[in-house]
Write a structure and sequence with these properties.
binds 3,4-dihydroxyphenylalanine; alpha+beta; single chain; about 20% strand; 11 helices; 7-stranded mixed β-sheet; BirA Bifunctional Protein, domain 2
């Protein structure tokens, strides 16, 4: 038994020394020192020894266990250090390497334009309409009739407006003015509201016209709102959006839902007023329609026109963006060409 123990110890220590990693080392320990390992197998024979041999072999078995454990601990420390340094070497980071290039997303020039328009009106006390009061799929009533359009108005024609096939009188709105009616129906004055959104028109697409475009509608209703308020607010807007030095002019116009009605022109950015193709040689480009809300419209939404008055306006976002950013073709906003979009 003594020989067995000594041979086993030599083998175990030898194997421990040769272990090349922590897993192997762990397996060797199990093989010799676990409950069912070789040392315990030998120990189980001790009970059959003579009383003289028992203490000697018992003691030797304990010393053998101690020696194997000591060899294990030493080897463990070496292999552990080795595994850490291997790990560090394999996971080494070169912090001076340049990172992967991830291109930034950017806001679309039309989004930037709408945001700027809205923030200018915010500063004048206007608040954003609820989305629910500004639907893109709309009835003929909110898009036209409630806005005082006569039944035979040409804009109501299928040539000009996209009607849906789902229901009679259901259409894609041709103007954001529908939100005026929806808001005023629900909320009593005083009102100062701004309503940006998409509109649709059945038109031949060209450098100046697209079937889909954006408008920002706005209106103010209160006691004693005058045309002077309209002029003050809209001049403040054009001054902030285009800069005070940019010439603008008011021109009389007509809309079914305003009386009197005006249009505002801004001097053409392409030719600085001298006349070019973009402005049809006039030197001016129209940016918005506006006017004092027609008493008929107020009556339709149960606001007493003898007590209240208001003004409204609607501007074309693409037109404003083209004039500010010197873009000469509306289609550029919709083509999703990154070379165009990344300039803004
Ligand atoms: N809805 C008109 C259009 O699309 C623009 C407009 C004109 C809106 C006058 C208004 C307004 O609110 O008062 O051409």
């Amino acid at each position: 038994m003594q020989t067995k123990l000594e041979q086993m110890k030599t083998r175990a220590v030898e194997e421990i020394k040769n272990a090349s990693n922590l897993n192997e080392l762990q397996e060797i320990k199990i093989k010799y020192l676990s409950r069912k390992g070789e040392l315990n197998t030998i120990r189980r024979g001790i009970k059959d020894l003579s009383p003289e041999e028992k203490p000697f072999i018992g003691d030797l078995a304990n010393k053998t266990a101690g020696a194997i454990e000591k060899a294990f601990d030493e080897s463990y420390e070496t292999l552990y250090k080795q595994s850490i340094s291997e790990k560090l070497a394999s996971e080494k980071l070169d912090v001076t390497l340049p990172g992967d290039f991830v291109p930034y997303g950017k806001q679309h020039p039309l989004t930037l334009t709408v945001n700027e328009i809205v923030s200018i009106f915010y500063k004048m006390g206007f608040t954003l309409v609820d989305e629910a009061d500004s639907p893109e799929v709309e009835t003929e009533y909110y898009n036209f009739d409630a806005l005082n359009f006569p039944p035979d108005h040409p804009a109501k024609d299928m040539q000009d407006t996209f009607y849906t096939l789902n229901a009679p009188n259901l259409l894609l709105r041709s103007q954001t003015s529908n939100s005026q009616i929806r808001k005023m129906e629900k909320t009593p004055p005083p009102l100062r509201v701004i309503s940006p959104g998409r509109v649709y028109r059945s038109e031949a697409v060209s450098s100046r016209k697209n079937n889909l475009f954006h408008q920002v509608e706005g209106f103010m209703v209160d006691k004693e709102v005058t045309f002077g308020d309209l002029k003050g607010v809209l001049n403040a807007f054009t001054g902030q959006f285009f800069g005070q030095e940019r010439p603008t002019r008011f021109r009389t116009s007509f809309f079914p839902f305003t009386e009197p009605s005006v249009e505002i022109d801004v001097q053409c950015i392409i030719c600085a007023g001298s006349g070019c193709r973009t402005c049809s040689r006039s030197g001016w480009l129209e940016i918005l329609g506006a006017g004092m809300i027609d008493p008929n419209v107020l009556q339709t939404v149960n606001i007493d026109p003898d007590k209240y008055s208001g003004f409204a306006f609607g501007m074309g976002v693409e037109r404003l963006a083209m004039l500010k950013l010197a873009v000469n073709d509306i289609r550029l906003f919709f083509n999703n060409d990154i070379r165009f979009l990344e300039q803004f």
